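Appendix B, record 7
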Amino acid sequence: MEVIKTALEGVVIIEPRVFKDARGYFFESFSQRDFDAQVTPLLGHNVTFVQDNESMSSYGVVRGLHYQKPPYTQSKLVRCVRGSVLDVAVDIRKGSPTFGQHVAVELTEENHRQFFIPKGFAHGFAVLSETAVFQYKCDEFYHPEADAGIQLLDPALSIDWRIPWDKAIMSEKDRIRASLKDSPLDFDYSVNLYK
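Structure tokens (predicted):
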């Protein structure tokens, strides 16, 4: 696999090695051994995934920007197994030199790319295809009491979700979330969230 660094520290794109022939294709969608060998050195800490999630959404659905509050912070390794999504990570660590900045990457069933979002980042995606099946690996279990998020339409974030807003479909909870500056964030850049 190839690991591609982004402008945000710890946020990486993973491109698997895909073997194609007349029958179709094959690739390892995840190997803890390869992740430890190639991604862990870039992160400076180990990540062990404990929960896999899958969602199906139609065109125009925008989910996010979600995170879990300490002590239940999550890293995510995400991919789109059917269709196409624009996936976004936003740095929400107070004191970070890239606080409030984001990286967006298109994940598709054709490119097989995966996106790693570390703890201390909010995550969201927009469905660009007719439907999309999206999978997430998480290194912490879901805790409803720690569920949180920031406003995905916050103009300060300048995210181009690539969806006309008259066609966007959002949950009411996501629609009314606070902006980044008005969110009570519990992430400090100087604190190691992996200890």
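Remarks on this record: The chain has a mean pLDDT of 95. The radius of gyration is 16 Å.
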